[in-house]
Amino acid sequence: MKVERNHRISCSMPSIYLISAVQFHRRFRSTVIQAGRKYPNLDECYQKNSSKFWDNFYKLHKNKFFKDRHYLEKDWGQYFSDDAHSPNGKVVLEVGCGAGNTIFPLVAAYPKIYVQACDISPHAVALVKSHLEFREDRVNAFVCDVTADNLLKRINPSSVDVITLPDGYVLLRDYAVGDFAQVMLEAKNQMIGESFYVRGDGTCSFYFSEDFLSTLFLQAGFKTVNISTYCKQIKNRHKNITMDRRWIRAVFKWE
User: Fold this and answer.
1) In angstroms, rounded to a whole number, what is the distance separating the alpha carbons of residues 166 and 229?
2) Beta bridge partners of 193
3) Is the pLDDT of residue 157 over 60?
4) Is the C-alpha dihedral spanning 79, 85, 90, 95 positive or negative?
5) Tens digits of residue pLDDT in 185-200
6) 54 in helix, strand or coil?
7) Nearest to 229 by CA among 216, 252, 253, 245
8) Which helix (H) or strand (E) holds 50?
9) Alpha helices in the chain (DSSP H)
């Protein structure tokens, strides 16, 4: 299964896939200019240099930016629980593990679960390994760009196969079109492709619609089990603004 751009996707096996131009900070401006000379197309520029930008992101924010994703147990707990097909616990592959905000809530909630976790940022992987709850018998964290590297060279294909698994599911939660952050990026003229935006630090985000996502997975051989857009208003009292946040949540099954 091909993963395009830098979409945050998490995959769970053996029976689940879990799927996480131009105002720039001065800190990253020289890097952007050099990359821009080599890649005149901005979309290509940021995709080719995404590892560098995300590494800078995690060096700056460490593990303080994203909150732990405890909602996974509530929303999709049935996919992580032991069953007749996996009495020894599920094996989970998270693509784009960041600092471990998905890994450690899952490990804590499901004692038998084993997590294979990768990220394009070496610093992010180092943060995972330095976490107080990191154990090598529960988590294998490694650097990998799934859009360019052969993932099966890092993972035993007999235990994890993200393409041909007959009973596999993809669980996906990501930004949806109309999200407050997209509106703000649009206002700042930071769109570099259709629904694709660059932030001030050089990292990028894609905003999905239900039709686009369903079609994308249908073309890859999956049927849609469930898909919806979750909306929540968040009040920022300090700035006196109300933010309409939107996330897309979906379950797909390999056919």
Assistant:
1) 27
2) 196
3) no
4) negative
5) 999 989 888 898 888 8
6) helix
7) 245
8) helix 50-61
9) 26-38, 42-48, 50-61, 71-80, 103-109, 122-129, 180-187, 210-219
What single string gives the DSSP state of each residue in 192-221? EETTEEE-TTS-EEE-B-HHHHHHHHHHTT
Question: Which residue in the block uniquely carries the two structure tokens 């107080």?
Answer: 132
CB 107 within 8 A of CB 83: no
Q: Please tell me whether the peptide bond between 157 and the residue prior to it is cis, using omega within 30 degrees of 0.
A: no
pLDDT > 90 fraction of the chain, expressed in percent and rounded = 35
Nearest to 75 by CA among 134, 18, 6: 18
Question: What are 165's two structure tokens?
Answer: 């698994």
- The answer to whether the CB of 205 falls within 8 A of the CB of 54 is no
Provide the residue type at 234 as one letter: I
Residue at 92: amino acid letter = V
Q: What is the mean pLDDT of residues 6-30?
A: 40
Amino acid letter for position 95: V
Q: Where are the beta strands (DSSP E) in 98-183?
A: 114-119, 139-143, 169-175
Distance CA 137, CA 115 (A): 9
**What is the rounded CA–CA span in Å between residue 48 and residue 138?**
32
Residue 153 is given by DSSP the state G
pLDDT band of 109, cuts 50, 70, 90: very high
Which residue, 5, 7, 49, 43, is CA-closest to 30? 49
Rounded distance between C-alpha atoms, residue 141 and residue 132, angstroms: 14
Q: Which amino acid is at 20?
A: S
CA-based torsion, 73, 233, 205, 214: positive or negative: positive
